[in-house]
Amino acid sequence: MARQVDRLNARSITALSTQGRHADGGGLYLIVDHNGAKRWSFIFRWQGKLKEMGLGGLSSVSLARARDLAKEARARVADGVNPIEERKRDKPVPTFGAMTKIYIDSHSASWKNTKHRQQWENTLAQHAKLLTDKPVDQIDVAEVLKVLQPIWSKIPETASRVRGRMEAILDAAKVSGHRTGENPATWKGNLKHLLSSRKRLTRGHHAALPFAELPAFMERLRARPGASATQLEFLILNASRSSEVRLASWSEIEFDEKLWIIPAERMKMAREHRLPLSPRSMEILTAIRERQQTESQVIGRQWSEKGHIFTQPGGTTAPSINATEMLLRRMKANVTTHGFRSSFRDWVGDATNFDRDLAEMQLAHQVGDETEIAYRRSDALQKRRKLMEAWASYLTSDDGSKVGQMKRN
Fold it and tell me: For domain 211-281+319-405, which CATH number applies: 1.20.1070, 3.30.420, 1.10.10, 1.10.443?
């Protein structure tokens, strides 16, 4: 009895959602992955073993084209040629580093802002560098574990992102026909059995320091040398997000107006954010600018306002994405960088008479519904300036005794 072929049609493949292989016949399968992605595969027997040859994703390879490719592959098998090995000779398999660039280039246009691209590039370059020069078809579970095991318990949030990004890149390699078989970076049914389950942080509940302990902590922080300590102090003074400070450039600072203006593309809510700078924040910025300008003159390099503010002495690149978290670890502080925003909000609500909405504006949170936002013409900059000067004064006090004195004028 002849095997049934051409079982699928354009309508049925669009409707298919069940994970697994769906046969068209003659060794051609439409595979629905765990994430819903659909791809074509030609499965054949070679030297007694089943082999799987990727033919491309459904979005780029039509049913008719997939059948043509499968027909060509069947002919090569009949001629005693392994089509997978033949393709490798004709089309070299990219390395993980090259595939990462291909993936980021093809997806970055759809990402909300440029910081997502930088996060992908930085985390993979720092934590997955063992895979950079390895062909994607040679990466297995053991290779993935070499990347994840050293960081899985130490920096779980980052490790989880690295795993997800490796999975996405290796999925793209499979769809592009560069590798076959299961994705070694998949969690469910794979790494879940080899790595401990991660305790997820609930959004908005990052480990935070009670605000009454902040003046003593700030005294310890200011006594520490190094660029990371200065970066963290500036972050706390302005109740900012880590990425906002880490990627800040001189072009965003209005020295005369004592303002830091973060463009919309760098903000989580995709809206420009103006922050009033306290005297202590201005002292930090002035000292860093003078140091960088002096260094530039010494080595004959042009100082630019487009450059990053928080760099290592003599450097020009933005600090590591984990710089402040590593500093907190060295200080044995059981808090996260993001947690200082919670400390600020608690201080405003519990120890001052400042309006709660001022704190939310400073944190760049949405205040009110869409209609209210549309009609609001002011970001209460001058009121927020008084708030942030009071916050800076509190942080530089000898102890928490001034808590009750921080009242709105």
Answer: 1.10.443
H/E stretch holding 99: helix 96-107
Q: What is the rounded distance in angstroms from the CA atom of residue 345 to the CA atom of residue 236? A: 12
CB atoms within 10 A of CB 49: 7
Among candidates 236, 223, 232, 211, which has minimal Cα distance to 399?
211
CA 294 to chain centre: 34
Q: What is the DSSP string of 139-183?
A: --HHHHHHHHTTTTTTSHHHHHHHHHHHHHHHHHHHHTTS--S--
DSSP 402: G
Quick one: which of 169, 189, 190 has its CA closest to 179?
169
pLDDT over 60 at 344, yes or no: yes
Q: Band of the pLDDT at 3, cuts 50, 70, 90?
A: low
Residue positions counted in the chain = 409
Domain ranges across the chain: 10-90, 96-193, 211-281+319-405
Separation of alpha carbons 313 and 102, rounded Å: 33
pLDDT at 409: 41
What is the C-alpha separation between 106 and 104, in angstroms, rounded? 5
**Rounded to an integer, what distance in angstroms lies between the CA atom of residue 158 and that of residue 115?**
15
Cα 378 to Cα 384: distance, rounded to the nearest angstrom: 11
Q: Which CATH architecture has domain 10-90?
A: 2-Layer Sandwich (3.30)
Token couple for 155: 């920096």
* Residue whose C-alpha is closest to residue 264's, from 255, 274, 256, 254: 274
pTM of the full structure: 0.51
In CATH, 96-193 is 3.40.50.1220? no
